[in-house]
């Protein structure tokens, strides 16, 4: 069963985000910035609906992962695009892509770990394979995101690929995004590999064991 504390934290975080976006929505309405209004409304729905109606989701998503997801979406699209943090802070994009690489690597690791530990699946994968999958999962999703940014710029007239280090084309921005995505994924893959090799009862081990106990149906238990 999900931890009630995690659930409350999730709802509090989402509530604060919705209030902030509602305030921004009022400002955008007064300024008649219709594209911004559409984006904020979309974000409010994407962040708020899953939190209020988790049982309606097509797949089961642990509360901890939902918290990470809403924080990342808020930082990327609301703070980054609507509040122009990408323009105001040159390092904002790099920090987000590094953290997304770590989080996506973690998701990839958890996915294979669930298959590995699932009592209904008669397969055991080596730690090196699990780590390799986690690494390429993070890098692959990062690459797909860059394709999405390129498509949005070309088809919708957006400006998601920013000028960087004197390069107005956005190529330098894209390459640095891919580099830090790769770095973040590598960090998580290495951490997961070391965990599976050593299986020590450290914090990572404790977190994973607690994760298995909290969501047994993900592991066929």
What are the key terms here?
single chain; 221 residues; mainly alpha; 2 domains
What can you tell me about this protein's structure?
The protein is built from eight helices and no strands. By secondary structure, the protein is mostly helical. The protein has two domains: 1-62; 84-219, no CATH class. Helix 1 (4-31) runs antiparallel to helix 2, helix 1 runs parallel beside helix 3 (63-82) and helix 6 packs antiparallel against helix 7 (171-198). It is globular, with a radius of gyration of 19 Å. The chain starts with a helix and ends in a 7-residue tail after the last helix.
The biggest beta sheet reads:
none
Number of helices: 8
Tally of discrete structural domains:
2
What share of residues are in beta strands? under 5%
State the order of secondary-structure elements, H for helix, E for strand. Answer: HHHHHHHH
- Supply the helix-strand structural class: mainly alpha
The pLDDT mean sits at 79
Instruction: Kindly state the percentage of residues in helix.
Output: over 70%
End-to-end distance, in Å?
12 Å
Model regions low in confidence, pLDDT < 50 over at least 5 residues: none
Number of strands: 0
- Rg computed from alpha carbons, rounded to a whole number of angstroms: 19 Å
Shape: globular
């Amino acid at each position: 069963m999900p931890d009630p504390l995690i659930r409350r934290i999730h709802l509090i975080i989402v509530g604060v985000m919705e209030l902030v976006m509602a305030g921004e929505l009022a400002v955008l309405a007064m300024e008649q910035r219709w594209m911004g209004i559409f984006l904020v409304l979309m974000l409010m729905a994407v962040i708020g609906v899953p939190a209020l109606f988790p049982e309606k989701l097509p797949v089961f998503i642990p509360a901890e992962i939902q918290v990470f997801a809403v924080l990342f979406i808020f930082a990327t699209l609301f703070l980054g695009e609507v509040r122009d943090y990408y323009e105001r802070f040159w390092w904002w994009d790099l920090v987000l892509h590094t953290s997304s690489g770590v989080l996506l690597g973690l998701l990839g690791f958890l996915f294979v770990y669930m298959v590995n530990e699932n009592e209904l699946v008669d397969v055991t994968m080596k730690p090196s394979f699990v780590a390799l999958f986690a690494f390429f999962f993070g890098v692959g999703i990062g690459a797909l995101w860059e394709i999405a940014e390129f498509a949005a710029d070309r088809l919708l007239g957006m400006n998601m690929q920013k000028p960087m280090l004197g390069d107005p084309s956005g190529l330098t921005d894209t390459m640095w995004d891919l580099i830090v995505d790769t770095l973040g994924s590598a960090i998580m893959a290495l951490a997961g590999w070391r965990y599976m090799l050593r299986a020590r009862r450290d914090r990572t081990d404790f977190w994973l064991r607690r994760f298995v106990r909290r969501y047994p149906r993900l592991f066929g238990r």
